[in-house]
Design a protein that fits this description.
With about 70 residues, the chain is of the alpha+beta class. The chain has a domain at about 25-65. Helix content is about 20%, strand content about 25%. It has 1 helix and 2 strands. The chain has one helix at about 25-35; strands at about 50-55, 60-65. A two-stranded antiparallel sheet has the order 1-2. A hairpin with a 4-residue loop joins strand 1 (about 50-55) and strand 2 (about 60-65). The longest helix is centred in the middle third of the chain and has 13 residues, at about 25-35. The radius of gyration is 12 Å and the shape is globular.
Length: about 70
Amino acid sequence: MGELPVNTHGGLLSHGHPARAGGIGNVVEAVVQLRGEAGARQAGERRLALAHGMGGVFATHGVLLLGAPE
């Protein structure tokens, strides 16, 4: 993993499709990373995660920032 890990679960190319509900996989992966439960793909100890999803024909975007409890 690099200094700023991105797409630790492979992103939507290997996990879903942008026109479907594949973006929820990004939220799930963010929570798994923050809990420290990602196994071999764990991105170290992280306190903040960003998940992005899109819908329609790239017309609707949602961004969610998640933080781990102190």
